[in-house]
Amino acid sequence: MAMSDLKPRRLDQWLANGGYCSRSEARALVRMGRVTLDGERARDPGEKTRAEAVRVDGEPLEAPGGLLAVFHKPAGYVCTHDGREGPSVFDLLPPRWKRRNPVVTTVGRLDKDTTGVLLLTDIGALVQHWTSPRHKVPKLYEVTVDGPIPESLIELFARGTLMMEDEDKPCLPARLEITGANQARLELTEGRYHQVKRMFATQGLTVTRLHRSHFGTYTVEGLAEGAWRFLDLAEAMGGVS
Ligand code: URA
Predict the structure, then answer these.
(1) Ligand 1 pocket: which of 79, 80, 106, 114 to mutate (most atoms within 8 A of CB)
(2) Which domains does the chain have, with CATH numbers?
(3) Percent above pLDDT 70 for the chain
(4) Relative to the CA of 197, which ligand 1 atom is closest?
(5) What is the pLDDT of residues 133-167, one digit of tens each?
(6) CA–CA gap between residue 210 and residue 113 (Å, rounded)
(7) Which atom of ligand 1 is nearest to the CA of 212?
(8) In a 3-state reduction of DSSP, which class is residue 50?
(9) Any residues with Cβ below 6 Å from ligand 1, and which?
């Protein structure tokens, strides 16, 4: 949604929802003169205003209509907010994102040791759309395993009959391309727990390296590990039915 289409809100609400401060701290931020409205120093945190009028420390509000970004996940980070599981991808992202309302979440999860495309958003409809197996969003993985990959796996994975341990439904058909003795590309349209690793485990193969190169049309091209960029929200929302 364009910034100009957003309904006016109280200034302290814009600031708190954007993760700049709590609603009660907004008063102090305004008193310090760090907030302007249409170029004039803001006085009243309760004043109703349009998003595009607001500047904090001279900068426009960040993604006031919803945040959508692609992140190049490095290995060694988990995709939860819970610090007990080890370093989190959120430690590598702007601290303000942890305080936004609605909260910013990852679209699905990558394992701690997996690298590659990770989408982040605070828009529930996008998370639902992209993670629902109904919409069959293709995810492409580059996989290295600890042994030779037999050609027969191409047909086996494509058939849609592969049963993983502890599951009562077979995996949806998946496209496997063998790219080296121990290497392959695997395209999935669902995202079950540890799915790539468990699919190869059915054949006695252990995944030793896993990189997601594509999520739908999104890639990490041009992004170093640990770097992120905003994505076009209007374009993404256009694809959500
Ligand atoms: N499948 C896995 O096994 N791990 C991931 O991180 C993603 C897909």
Answers:
(1) 114
(2) 3-60 (3.10.290.10), 68-132+218-238 (3.30.70.580), 138-215 (3.30.70.1560)
(3) 98
(4) 3
(5) 899 999 999 999 999 999 999 999 999 999 999 99
(6) 8
(7) 7
(8) coil
(9) 110-111, 114, 194-197, 210
What is the structure's pLDDT at 5? Answer: 83
CA–centroid distance, 42 to ligand 1, in Å, is 48
Ligand 1 centre to CA of 13 (Å) is 38
User: What's the burial of 94, exposed, middle or buried (CB within 10 Å: 0-12/13-18/19+)?
Assistant: middle
Active-site annotation, residues: 111
Q: What's the predicted TM-score (pTM) here?
A: 0.94
Would you say how long the chain is, in residues? 241
Residue pair 69/119 in contact (Cβ under 8 Å)? The answer is: yes
For the stretch 158-202, pLDDT in tens is 999 999 999 999 999 999 999 999 999 999 999 999 999 999 999
